[in-house]
## 1
Amino acid sequence: GENVEQHPSTLSVQEGDSAVIKCTYSDSASNYFPWYKQELGKGPQLIIDIRSNVGEKKDQRIAVTLNKTAKHFSLHITETQPEDSAVYFCAASTSGTYKYIFGTGTRLKVLA
Amino acid sequence: DAGVIQSPRHEVTEMGQEVTLRCKPISGHNSLFWYRQTMMRGLELLIYFNNNVPIDDSGMPEDRFSAKMPNASFSTLKIQPSEPRDSAVYFCASSLAENTGELFFGEGSRLTVL
C-alpha cells in the first residue's frame, strides 16, 4: 500500500524567511497530493493541492511542486509570518479512491 | 455556513466506561470520515461512510469500536469499553465528492481515558 514520508518533523524559521517541507510517496498510482494546515486545537484545513498532471501550483505565498519521477512533492511558503506557525500535513491519494495517506506532520514555528 | 460540528470537544473518562462521540457533517456532503490522531501514529482513517452506508471500516482498531450514521446529518463513534490506549483526538470529516475531494474536518474530540 501507499506510504508517505514527511520531513522535517520540526522547522523553525525567522519571520520573512522561506520554509520548505518535503514529502515522498511510494505508490506510482497516486495522483492527488493535498496539503493540510492544522492550527492548535483545530482540525486540519486544506491550503493547497496538486494533481499529477501539473508540476507546480501557486497560491499567493504558498506553492507546491511535484516530481512524479522521483515520487516527491514539496510545500514552499515564502515571506513567512507568525500566523503561518502550525502543523502541516502532506497526503497522497489515487483518483477514484477515498483513502488519503497522510504524512506524519511538520511543526513549523515562525519566529518574530 | 457551519462547518463540521463535533461533540464533545473534550472527554475524560475512566477505563471501562462507554464513550460516544458525535458528528454533524456539512449539509449536502455525502461522504463522512472518522479519523484518529495520535503522536505515535499520526492521522489514521477509522471508517468511511458514503451516503450513510459504511464502505470501509478496516481501520477500526477492534470490536470495542463501532460507528453509525443513521441519517445524512448525524454520525456517532462509540468505544465500549474504553481503554487508556484509546486516548487520542478523534476527528470527523466530510466531503462533497466520493473521491479526491477536499476533506472538511471538525475541530476534534480529545479523549482521555484514565
## 2
Amino acid sequence: EAGVAQSPRYKIIEKRQSVAFWCNPISGHATLYWYQQILGQGPKLLIQFQNNGVVDDSQLPKDRFSAERLKGVDSTLKIQPAKLEDSAVYLCASSLAGPGLADVRNEQFFGPGTRLTVL
Amino acid sequence: GENVEQHPSTLSVQEGDSAVIKCTYSDSASNYFPWYKQELGKRPQLIIDIRSNVGEKKDQRIAVTLNKTAKHFSLHITETQPEDSAVYFCAASPRGYSTLTFGKGTMLLVSP
C-alpha cells in the first residue's frame, strides 16, 4: 500500500515568514498526527486529528501554528510567523484506528517529513 | 502529562554483541509501549511494541520487556549487525491507542 506522503521535503525561509506543509495519510486511516522533531530529540506531538476533528492540540503553539484536516483526509500545517526555534523536521503520521479502540494495535505510520530551516 | 526518559543517549557495540536500551515513564495509566527505529534522514518505523498485559515480547533478534510496577521497559537486541545502526526511540501511550510521548532517542552504532 502507498505510505504517508508529505510535501515539500525541504523548506528554507526567513524568520517572520509563513510556511505551510501538506500531508496525505494512508488511505482509510482515521487518525492523523503532526509531530515536530528537533535535531537530536524525539518527535513531539503537535496535533492529532480523528477524521476531521481535533483530538489533542495541547502542545500546539496556537499563536503561530494552525492545522486543519478538511474532509477527514489530507491535512495542512501552517506556521505564521516563523521563528528561528521552529527549525525542525515536521513529521506527519497516520493510524488506522483511534480513541475508543483500546485493544486494537494502533501502529502509527510516518511520512518522510519536511525539513524546515528558519534563517 | 506523560514523561518518558531514555538511556543511554549513545551506545557503541561490536558486531555480534547485545545492546540494551532502557526507558522509564511517569504515567501509571500508560499501557502501550512501542519502539521505533530511525535511520539517518529517514522516517521512524515501528520495530516492536508491547502492551501492559504482557511482560515480554520477542521478534527474532529483538525483544522488549516491561515492568509496570517499576514503570520501565527495555529494548534488547541480540547478535547486533551493522545495519542495526540507527536512532531508537521508545514511546508510551497513556490511553493505549492514541497519543504517543517519545523519549529523546538512543543512537546505536554497531561496528564491524
